């Protein structure tokens, strides 16, 4: 784990020094939220849960949970997801392979 942390810190410093986008260099997810109506997530690692009130995605830094009403996945590709609906919450669960739990 220490070696991965050192590699991540070194990559971050190189990205900063060369003024490169950190989301590309560090393989980080990129989120674009438009009001409470649309969320575009780039660089995801898979869909874990999809209901009308919750969407859960695996990312390189943990689980991303999007909560709301009438959520709909408009587009899903190997590295991008576009979610429409009334988004009320975007939450990170840092770490490894936690479980997504659907809202009751």
UniProtKB/TrEMBL annotation:
Cleaved signal peptide residues: none
Highest taxon of source: Bacteria
InterPro entries noted in UniProt: Spore_YabP/YqfC, Spore_YqfC, YabP_sf
UniProt protein name: Sporulation protein YqfC
Source lineage: Bacteria, Bacillati, Bacillota, Capillibacterium
């Amino acid at each position: 784990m220490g070696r991965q942390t050192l590699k991540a810190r070194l990559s971050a410093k190189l990205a900063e020094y060369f003024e490169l986008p950190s989301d590309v260099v560090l393989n980080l997810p990129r989120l674009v939220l438009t009001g409470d109506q649309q969320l575009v997530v780039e660089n995801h690692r898979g869909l874990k849960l999809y209901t009308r009130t919750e969407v859960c995605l695996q990312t390189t830094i943990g689980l991303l949970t999007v909560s709301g009403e009438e959520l709909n996945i408009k587009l899903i590709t190997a590295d991008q997801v576009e979610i429409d609906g009334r988004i009320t919450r975007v939450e990170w669960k840092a770490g490894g392979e936690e479980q997504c739990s659907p809202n009751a």
